[in-house]
Design a protein that fits this description.
alpha/beta; UDP-galactose 4-epimerase, domain 1; 2 domains; about 20% strand; 10 helices; about 350 residues; 7-stranded parallel sheet; 4-stranded mixed sheet; Rossmann fold
Amino acid sequence: MKIALIFGITGQDGSYLAEFLLKKRYQVHGVKRKSSSINTSRIDHIYQDPFKKNKNFFLHYGDLTDPLSVNHLINLIKPNEIYNLAAQSHVAVSFELPDYSSNINAIGSLRILEAIKTLSLKNIKYYQAGTSEMYGGQIQKKLNEKSVFNPRSPYAVSKVYAHYITKNYREAFNIFASNGILFNHESPRRGETFVTRKITIGLSKIKLGLQKKLVLGNLYAKRDWGHAKDYIEAIWKILQYKSPQDFVISTGKNYSVKEFINECAKVLKIKLVWRGSGINTKAYDYHSKKCIIECSKKYFRPSEVDYLLGDSSVARKKLKWSPKIGFKELVKEMTLSDYDFYKKKFNK
């Protein structure tokens, strides 16, 4: 039985990866931060009684800001595979908390790699979660493993550091360490502060009469959106590859925030009428004639990234991976999940 250690187990990707690995008959250990509030909703369905015998899913308290806990957990568990999915992953928040974001995202990855090195556990395979945000606002057809990074946020800068320190430890200390440069991947488990969930929740509430208006930022930003379930399989395949290297994971298609809204509205049978341009763009309900979507500078980043499109041809060829869930199916799943939740919650 292989043993996996997941930093960031309570997040979207961590929860899907835990499910995936358990089906592969792994013993899965997850690291969660201590909090006064319960933050395990994404993994409650796979949590096991701590006193149960022959269990294969374990939770541990730990924190990437604490090198002692990182060393202790890795030495205690001695995993075959470590997946670093932990991060302060909200781009806008990273402008407000640059030091904290860098401590978690950049130095946190270094702490794991240093533990692998100093504990002489060189049989461990290490996965570092990268992001398309590292490329910044480059207008070109598609971005691949050879494209130049141009980070435009503290979050992206911290991830570039994590990418290169992973590559450095791979080359300097012969550690099996790989980077996955994942483009945007969503699901019903995506955090509620991310734009996709803001849209699916906001429009669901408007449809149910629970909210009057949805306020967003840049409607014309284009992203390469995939489903987190598909991307988790790619993450696993990266560590099963014969040698450590870096892979771009993407769908190869991108859509604007406005297009995401339109697709969500179709699912909910809301007919939108768009008026205006730029920050003055607004959407009106065709039947009520009321404005239900508008923009605010509050939700624009200090430095915007308007366009991201990935080229995952290397992963498709070497890992035999390709996304299975398309854009429309993704939006439909997310929208119906939120609509059904709020309909049930408020007895609508």
